[in-house]
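Researcher: Good morning. I'm working through a list of sequences from a screen, and I'd like to move beyond sequence-only analysis. For each chain I'm collecting a predicted structure so we can compare shapes side by side. This is the next one on the list. No need for commentary yet; just the structure.
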Amino acid sequence: MTQKLTPKQLAELAVRATSIRRNIVSMVTEAKSGHPGGSLSAADMLAVLYFAEMKVDPANPTDAGRDRFVLSKGHGAPVLYATLAEKGYLPAAELLTLRKIDSRLQGHPEMKHIPGIDMSTGSLGQGLSAANGMALAGKLDARDYRVYALLGDGELEEGQIWEAAMFAAHYKLDNLTAFVDFNGLQIDGPVAEVMSPLPIPEKWQAFGWHVLIIDGHDYNAIYDAIQTAKTVKGKPTMIVAKTIKGKGVCQMENVADWHGKAPSREECTKFLAELEDLKDK
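Model: Good morning. Structure tokens for this chain:
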């Protein structure tokens, strides 16, 4: 049975995701560097995780029973920072310190000084291994928390991803749910041309994972996939989420150049207005 969100929940998620996207654009513009394209493509998935699913509490960010989230594609830090601020872990004003020399919000997530960050990430391919360790620890400690990880599709070109895939299946980590942000683009162009990891669903199935394919911008589809993953026993679940790079900003959508380029001040103003209009539709 498909599990759907209520109209009230859907409306809240639309507002949350738009706020997250607006903050991504603002903080990357202020920093004059960063990765907006893949942050915008992941905003809807993080909105559902943090506002409709995960057991987390900003007042107690180190609670041993909390669900865990690992941003394996660590360069997408703006979407995680914006989500944490939206959830109440960080003051929204701090987002504009992104990549400043004395800021906690560096170009990749850092767990020592930022509440709500469960793993420092940045070297592509390593985050899934860390998520595996958290999931295995949960099983060994008889904890009922769940672990979520977000991977980039270009990140699947890293060999460590496939070692981690074998590990998770071998140890039957059914408390682990991962997402691939399948927007089809990386910094050098289409993933299929740079170093093709395709076909993505079939590869994860071959490595022993339960695989679901969804629209990564459909809140109900994201939520239903998460609920389905919780019913799968004896294997981890990979949710292959088809997304649009730069989602929400027409000038950025499906353009590889926006993988790691900051908007100008003028572009920022235009993009923020576009996102505000999107929220009202």
